[in-house]
């Protein structure tokens, strides 16, 4: 336990503390020190890809894929891979996590979440493009598989080498499997507590139903992507349109809300009160946790896509960061910031969000947020088990026994988490994602030139052809 807490504190604790005006301090964790400079570096190296190629991201998402389908696509489409990764990104972090960031860091935290999303989308491009460049055929599920374990392996183990495994790739895969087991518990606990609040359903009933439905889907060979294809667009659209309705009905307050976000982001009041460090760090941390860029999760889905050019999947995953933070996280922030502060004072997490929704939409709001949380969380569970496939295969080889055993373990964790919250397991999830990020970034920086070469090729040979037509 002492070792566990030591590693946890190195990853998430304040490694460096910078004094700020007004007596405030800015504490920087190891992950912030790795991800933010790397994101800025990738943004510069891609010539500000998030701004420059945003129209192209939308074009790639909307383009017609029928031609590839006629030629019998192997595996899933690029957009389906985006849906799987969005299912994981758009989880309860977008609901409860954003609320927690604003509670701790004020409205200014939202601005810093936006900044981190713009920086993170370049990282997401690099890791997704690499996942495509180093993907392998999947003999069990069909199509392709890959992710950080595979490109880390290619970086450290040369072809023809007698070594079967890279230590760093093994560490990444193990960290991922630990993280996703921890997240399974957090998911079911959030669902059971929200259903208890909204419908007074005892946790045992909501948990059993959740586990049974999850088991039916994940234990079937290729049901996961089909189910996510339906759930993710519906849940994201419902949440988005309900938020738009709330924003429109409170349109008069919008100038004040945006004024609060920008003034508190650099705010004189926060500097004077010694709180500017909390504003920046809560926004930055929430942005990093929510969009997952650099953690190495999304490339596990990106590798499975059968797409005409590796950079295309990179652009799709970069767009995924925008969808997660600039759309869904902002929706959560608006729901909360358009609620009178007096009503939400002293509340946190799910209680705070449900109170805000009740203020805007009455009892329907409480029910809506419980159902949306169920969909967000359930889709996250399906997504992380899709991610786990390639990591289980890297560690234990291509066999159904190891694949099924991991799914059963995750379902058991899902059941246990619904009945009780174990802080250790929650911390285990955080530890797993922290270690994944460190191992992934060790490989990402030396391999980045390959992704940048792919981007140059795409811009030269694909985008110029499109323009000429």
From TrEMBL:
PROSITE patterns: NA_ALANINE_SYMP (PS00873)
Membrane topology according to the record: Multi-pass membrane protein
UniProt superkingdom: Bacteria
Keywords tagged on the record: Cell membrane, Membrane, Symport, Transmembrane, Transmembrane helix, Transport
GO molecular function: amino acid:sodium symporter activity
The keyword Nucleotide-binding is annotated on this UniProt entry: no
Subcellular location: Cell membrane
GO cellular component, one term: plasma membrane
Stretches that traverse the bilayer: 20-44, 167-187, 199-218, 230-249, 261-281, 318-339, 359-387, 408-425, 431-448
Stored InterPro entries: Na/Ala_symport (IPR001463)
Classification via Pfam families: Na_Ala_symp
Family designation: Belongs to the alanine or glycine:cation symporter (AGCS) (TC 2.A.25) family.
Name of the protein in its database record: Alanine:cation symporter family protein
Source organism per UniProt: Mediterraneibacter catenae
């Amino acid at each position: 336990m002492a070792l566990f807490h030591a590693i946890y504190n190195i990853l998430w604790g304040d490694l460096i503390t910078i004094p700020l005006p007004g007596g405030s301090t800015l504490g920087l964790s190891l992950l912030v020190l790795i991800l933010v400079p790397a994101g800025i570096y990738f943004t510069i190296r891609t010539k500000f890809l998030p701004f420059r190629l945003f129209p192209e991201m939308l074009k790639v998402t909307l383009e017609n894929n029928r031609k590839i389908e006629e030629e019998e696509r192997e595996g899933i489409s690029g957009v389906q891979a985006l849906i799987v990764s969005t299912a994981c990104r758009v989880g309860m972090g977008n609901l409860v996590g954003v609320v927690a960031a604003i509670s701790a860091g004020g409205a200014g935290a939202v601005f810093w979440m936006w900044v981190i999303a713009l920086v993170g989308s370049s990282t997401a491009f690099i890791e997704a493009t690499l996942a495509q460049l180093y993907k392998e055929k999947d003999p069990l599920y069909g199509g392709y598989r890959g992710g950080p374990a595979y490109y880390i392996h290619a970086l450290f183990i040369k072809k023809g080498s007698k070594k079967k495994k890279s230590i760093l790739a093994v560490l990444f895969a193990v960290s991922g499997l630990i993280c996703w087991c921890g997240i399974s518990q957090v998911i079911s606990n959030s669902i059971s507590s929200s259903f208890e609040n909204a419908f007074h359903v005892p946790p045992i009933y909501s948990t059993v139903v959740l586990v049974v439905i999850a088991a039916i889907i994940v234990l079937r060979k290729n049901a996961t992507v089909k189910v996510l294809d339906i759930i993710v667009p519906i849940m994201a659209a419902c949440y988005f349109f309900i938020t738009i309705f709330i924003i429109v009905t409170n349109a008069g307050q919008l100038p004040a809300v945006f004024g609060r976000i920008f003034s508190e982001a650099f705010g004189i009041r926060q500097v004077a009160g010694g709180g500017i460090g909390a504003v920046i760090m809560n926004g930055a941390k929430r942005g990093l946790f929510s969009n997952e860029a650099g953690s190495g999760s999304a490339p596990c889905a990106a590798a499975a896509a059968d797409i005409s050019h590796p950079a295309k999947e990179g652009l799709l995953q970069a767009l995924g960061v925008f969808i997660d933070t600039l759309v869904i996280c902002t929706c959560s922030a608006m729901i909360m910031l358009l609620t009178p502060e007096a009503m939400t004072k002293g509340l946190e997490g799910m209680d705070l969000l449900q109170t805000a929704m009740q203020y805007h939409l009455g009892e329907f709001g409480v029910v809506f947020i419980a159902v949306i949380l169920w969909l967000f969380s359930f889709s996250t569970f399906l997504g992380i088990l899709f991610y786990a496939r390639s990591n289980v295969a890297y560690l234990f080889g291509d066999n159904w026994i190891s694949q099924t055993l991991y799914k059963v373990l995750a379902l058991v964790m899902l059941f246990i988490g619904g009945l009780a919250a174990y802080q250790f397991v929650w911390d285990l999830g955080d530890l797993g994602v922290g270690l994944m990020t460190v191992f992934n970034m060790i490989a990402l920086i030396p391999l980045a030139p390959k992704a940048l070469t792919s981007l140059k090729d795409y811009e030269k040979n694909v985008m110029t052809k499109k323009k000429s037509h």
